[in-house]
């Protein structure tokens, strides 16, 4: 940028406290730097115009240092159409904000709280009134730095506190549409202004007068022939466009004929039609068909009708207001139109936190005393699955999710001799369960998690068990001879060896490698565990403050035909009703020789987690689960809930051609399964599901429900009849979203721990009222 394009702001006292906020308004047509923080000594501050009066006249004085010669300490920019923040060695690639460079005004708010402050959330980013990103680190510019703005900024203000989500939403006002509805039709000049739009946004606030009422909300015609319409009925909203003589249809399913007003938005953008209802995404479907695509090349739209179709048949209700925007609104702007209640999201584990490259695989529970424990894979080197060095880590909240304690490492096998690497040992895919009924272990939190030695992963693990029938690790020496490791560190038949609790071996008192390392990493290696997968248990009796040493339990549940048996990550349950009350269930899945033919079921404990056994897989009575080749019977990662009658309902990831979530029911506490089917109302994109009982037959289900083409669109669905039907649904994250885990907070709201692909694991408080 040129000197005349920049402004320098040095009044940053508001950023010096434990909390602060930075608010900017901008309008951009291209990629570029919006705001930079420079060392105070690198540039002379210029007079800075009031927020509402920024203009090129407030440029820096002659003779100041050229900022091009100074590397910024902090930089906010637009790259490839999305916001990016670089600070303190972190890069926040906010790719889900794509669309901020169309020359329209936007408001960006960044709030900060130092980790040592009571809030301690790090950084939150809000675009157009609603949160779009967060980070564990406090990434505010230094109060001693100088902020350099670009000409794209129109306003900059600071605040000495972190604005809450409700404050940010309340301060934002959505722009008015280019064409505002004021009658039952749109004027001819306004029709001419929008009929060439292939990208843009249509908004109406409307209602019908009750169930069974329906009709057209908006229609467009050419020569009296209808070529575009938005209508409503008891099945939902239907948007139709006649493209080259063929009607393209976009159906957002749901029940909105309840007599209440609803804000309905149709957005044509990025090759698709998005339909939002009351600020929530209800449909994303390929095919960017808007006014320009309606009709034919020879005939332009010449009439647009509001609250009726092109022949005058009126809606059984009313359109109160609305309009047409000549550009795609952001998700925040769409939510603002509906005055949607904002959510607050906190980054708990993200790229760069505690020096780790990535975190994945959320697990979450609320303990008997109300402590929330959030778990994740800490993937030290990169975001990949095994083989990779991965630790199991947690963070705890002692105040119902308002703030979180620092990271605790629960299981970390030692790094190799050269430090962390993709060849390091791993613990992956944790699943937690709380025992509230046991007399032996009241309040115990049990975690089952998969373990692989260094260099071993799901694809190259051998088809053999790595423990003997007493649960002792089997070890192999350089010659391939095998022996067992005793609990005291001695090795059967080899008095010269001793193994310490971390796996380090001594031979006649001299270092001799580590049993968990990849073969060939250490010239002194002597004994190694088998190159297979293991299942490990740890537990805590003090709300996660301390944990037991890892205990291998695969010998209790793994069978000889299994190439792999591991957890369905997330959370297990304890049964509270019927003859199996007190039983612990943790989902598992396994495979035989073919690693893609998975089969899922429940691991069962009737003694508070001391011993475990394997319940049958969902399709075990239908196929030979040790050797089948039919995708219709694949059941992978799963979750379960207990219903009012004590039966257990499972939902499972699958490869069924229907593309729907799999379900089955157990009437014997998870031992066997009946009525396996695929729910036509719930998509499955082959991603981990999670479910939570809200009491009785009320079930809350969550999964990534759409390929965009990346895994995304995290949706929560509420059933009030044990999963048979779904009363309502809410999209909590329309874009990048993969695995998740839910827990009931002490205040009755929902804690949702979810992952944004490889960026990290995030915690969102979801109000119970969302589903009322």
UniProtKB/TrEMBL annotation:
GO molecular function, one term: exo-alpha-sialidase activity
Region of interest: Disordered: 52-71
Source species of the chain: Alloscardovia macacae
Pfam families on file: BNR_2 (PF13088)
EC number: 3.2.1.18
The protein, known as: exo-alpha-sialidase
GO process terms (BP): ganglioside catabolic process; oligosaccharide catabolic process
SUPFAM superfamilies named in the record: Concanavalin A-like lectins/glucanases (SSF49899), Sialidases (SSF50939)
């Amino acid at each position: 940028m040129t000197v005349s394009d920049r402004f320098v702001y040095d009044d940053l006292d508001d950023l010096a406290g434990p909390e602060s906020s930075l608010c900017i308004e901008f309008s951009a047509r291209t990629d570029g730097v919006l705001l930079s923080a420079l060392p105070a000594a690198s540039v002379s501050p210029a007079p800075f115009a009031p927020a509402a009066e920024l203009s090129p006249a407030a440029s820096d004085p002659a003779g100041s240092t050229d900022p091009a010669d100074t590397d910024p300490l902090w930089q906010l920019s637009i790259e490839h159409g999305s916001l990016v923040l670089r600070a303190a060695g972190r890069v926040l690639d906010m790719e889900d904000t794509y669309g901020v460079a169309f020359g329209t005004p936007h408001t960006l708010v960044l709030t900060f709280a130092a980790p040592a402050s009571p809030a301690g959330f790090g950084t939150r980013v809000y675009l157009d009134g609603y949160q779009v990103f967060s980070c564990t680190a406090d990434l505010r510019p230094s109060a001693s730095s100088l902020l350099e703005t670009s000409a794209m900024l129109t306003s900059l203000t600071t605040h000495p506190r972190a604005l809450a989500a409700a404050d940010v939403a309340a301060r934002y006002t959505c722009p008015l549409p280019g064409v505002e509805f004021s009658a039952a039709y749109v004027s001819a000049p306004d029709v001419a202004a929008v009929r060439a739009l292939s990208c843009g946004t249509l908004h109406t606030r409307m209602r019908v007068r009750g169930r069974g009422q329906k009709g057209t909300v908006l229609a467009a015609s050419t020569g009296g022939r209808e070529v575009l319409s938005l209508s409503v009925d008891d099945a939902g909203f239907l948007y139709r466009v006649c493209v080259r003589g063929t009607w393209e249809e976009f159906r957002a399913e749901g029940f909105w004929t309840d007599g209440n007003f609803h804000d309905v938005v149709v957005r044509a953008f990025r090759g698709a039609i998005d339909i939002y209802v009351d600020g929530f995404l209800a449909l994303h479907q390929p095919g960017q068909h808007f006014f320009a695509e309606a009709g034919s090349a020879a005939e332009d739209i010449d009439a647009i009708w509001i609250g009726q179709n092109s022949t005058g048949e009126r809606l059984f209700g009313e359109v109160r207001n609305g309009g047409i925007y000549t550009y795609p609104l952001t998700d925040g702007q769409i939510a603002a139109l509906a005055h949607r209640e904002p959510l607050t999201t906190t980054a708990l584990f993200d790229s760069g936190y505690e020096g780790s490259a990535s975190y994945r695989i959320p697990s979450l529970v609320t303990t008997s005393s109300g402590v929330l424990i959030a778990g994740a894979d800490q993937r030290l080197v990169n975001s990949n699955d095994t083989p990779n060095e991965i630790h199991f880590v947690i963070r705890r909240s002692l105040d119902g999710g308002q703030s979180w304690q620092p990271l605790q490492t629960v299981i970390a096998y030692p790094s190799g001799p050269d430090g962390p690497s993709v060849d390091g040992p791993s613990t992956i895919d944790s699943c937690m369960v709380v025992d509230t009924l046991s007399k032996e272990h009241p309040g115990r939190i049990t975690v089952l998690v998969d373990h692989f030695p260094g260099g071993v992963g799901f694809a190259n693990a051998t088809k053999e068990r790595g423990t003997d029938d007493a649960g002792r690790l089997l070890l192999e020496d350089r010659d391939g001879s095998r022996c067992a490791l005793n609990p005291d560190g001695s090795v059967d038949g080899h008095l010269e060896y001793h193994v310490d609790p971390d796996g380090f071996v001594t031979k006649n008192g001299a270092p001799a490698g580590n049993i968990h390392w990849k073969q060939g990493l250490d010239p002194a290696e002597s004994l190694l565990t088998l190159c297979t997968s293991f299942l490990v248990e740890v537990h805590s009796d003090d709300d996660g403050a301390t944990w037991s040493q890892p205990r291998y339990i695969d010998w209790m549940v793994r069978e000889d035909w299994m190439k792999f048996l591991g957890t369905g990550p997330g959370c297990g349950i304890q049964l509270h009703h019927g003859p199996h009350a007190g039983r612990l269930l943790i989902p598992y899945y396994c495979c035989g020789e073919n690693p893609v033919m998975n089969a899922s079921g429940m691991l069962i404990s009737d003694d508070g987690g001391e011993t475990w056994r394997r319940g049958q897989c969902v399709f075990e009575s239908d196929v030979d689960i040790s050797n089948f080749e039919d995708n219709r019977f694949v059941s992978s990662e799963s979750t379960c809930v207990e219903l009012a009658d004590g039966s257990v309902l499972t939902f499972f990831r699958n490869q069924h051609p229907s593309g729907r979530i799999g379900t089955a029911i157990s009437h014997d506490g998870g031992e066997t399964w009946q009525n396996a089917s695929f729910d036509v109302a719930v998509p499955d994109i082959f991603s981990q599901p999670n479910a939570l009982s809200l009491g009785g037959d009320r079930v809350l289900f969550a999964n990534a429900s759409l390929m965009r083409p990346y895994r995304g669109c995290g949706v929560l669905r509420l059933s009030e009849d044990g999963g048979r039907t779904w009363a309502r649904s809410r999209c909590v994250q329309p874009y990048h979203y993969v695995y998740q885990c839910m827990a009931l907070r002490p205040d009755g709201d929902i804690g949702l721990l979810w992952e944004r692909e490889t960026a990290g694991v995030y915690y969102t408080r979801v109000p119970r009222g969302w589903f009322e």
